[in-house]
Design goal:
By secondary structure, the chain is mainly alpha-helical. It is built from 3 helices and no strands. It is elongated.
């Protein structure tokens, strides 16, 4: 039962990572521009949004790594 919960958590983290990475703006802009990121790019608050997006991405990536390690140890 615990393994199934961890697998579901890992799938959710995986999908969240895909979404969060696509939301980052790259050199030519990202999907964040599609959702209004370009509107606030001239404002001073746009850097706060990018910093928060970075923090959330790192937290989800660490959670994904921990679920990988837990599953590795659990399935041995």
């Amino acid at each position: 039962m615990l393994t199934a919960i961890i697998v579901v958590l890992q799938i959710v983290c995986c999908l969240a990572l895909i979404f969060l990475i696509l939301m980052h703006s790259g050199k030519g802009g990202g999907l964040s521009d599609m959702f209004g990121g370009s509107v606030g790019s001239a404002a001073a608050g746009s850097t706060v949004v990018e910093k928060n997006l970075d923090r959330i991405t790192v937290i989800v990536a660490v959670l994904f790594a921990f679920t990988n390690i837990i599953l590795l140890l659990r399935l041995q």
